[in-house]
Amino acid sequence: MMKVFRHKAYFTGIHVLLFVSLLTILYAYSPTIRVKVKEIMDPADKVYTIAHRGASGYAPENTIPAFELAAEMKADIIEIDIHLTKDGIPVVIHDDTVNRTTNGKGYVKNMTLEQLERLDAGTWFNEAYPMFARDKYAGTTIPTLDQVFETFGKEIKYILEIKDSAPSPGIETLINESIQKYDLEDVVAIHSFSAGSLRKFHKINPDIPLYQLVWYDYNAERVSETYLKEIKSYAVGISPNFQGISSAYVAQVKNFGLKVMPYTVNYQLNMDKAYSWGVDGVYTNFPDRLLEVIDTNRDNAQW
Ligand code: G3P
Ligand code: CA
């Protein structure tokens, strides 16, 4: 009996040893496997590339072409700003007015969808950035949230921003209805500067991850635990302005169990810094630049 047991243990031991040796060889000689092993051991190591208003450094912000380009560049997430029209339709535009990014004038909340859809949301970009101008941008329109969901489905992830300036009544419910309609619950997150709006959304649908957008005037080193506790009661993370944070801030917030995803980082030097601080994602107008920084860091990593 004892002999059989010893034989079995010996046999198992040999197999474990062979398996561990194989893993060690793969780990040592394959960078892809190294990255995978690191991801399995530390899932937080995934740094999301978030295309801020789409690939808005290269295409008119918050338009279908800007989102298409972000998807082509292999960004993980597109960030989308949402306002409500006069007739209560969630549309994708950053400012309260259409003045800066279209050929029209007026407040989004005072215009119907039909009025908004007549506007050209791309020509301003071609004129402002001739080096990135493309014929197809001229005449592109302000999309509805539904149009974006319809176009991209689960092809990409989304972070929707409920704009903070007096969130329209009911915007949270309408956004949630669109998410349900397209069955996108597992690929959508929401952020907002308005804690009130986020709390409201959390009550409507506690399954959607929320991020509190914040702005710091000076480099934040440490923040109060009461403040972090309050945020943690409804959100999974904080999205601060990159210029307002430090490595100590990132470490504190992450140790508290919240994610950190700074905005808006467009220079590779700063992307590199954010990466080395261990952030969970970075908002950028130039997703290709960030993906390059992430790749370089991973290639150079010594495990
Ligand atoms: O990504 C965070 C950012 O979207 C918040 O600022 O003005 O670009 O909407 P803003
Ligand atoms: Ca935004």
From TrEMBL:
Where do the GP-PDE domain residues begin and end? Answer: 47-294
Keywords recorded for this protein, A-Z: Hydrolase
For whether the record's keyword set contains Mitochondrion, the answer is no
Has the keyword Cell inner membrane been applied to this entry? no
Q: Name one Pfam family in it.
A: GDPD
The EC number(s) attached to this protein equal 3.1.4.46
Q: Which GO terms describe its molecular function?
A: glycerophosphodiester phosphodiesterase activity
**What are the transmembrane regions?**
none
PANTHER family attached here? GLYCEROPHOSPHODIESTER PHOSPHODIESTERASE (PTHR46211:SF7), GLYCEROPHOSPHORYL DIESTER PHOSPHODIESTERASE (PTHR46211)
Q: What is this protein called?
A: Glycerophosphodiester phosphodiesterase
The upper taxonomy is: Bacteria, Bacillati, Bacillota, Bacilli, Bacillales
What gene is this protein translated from? glpQ_2
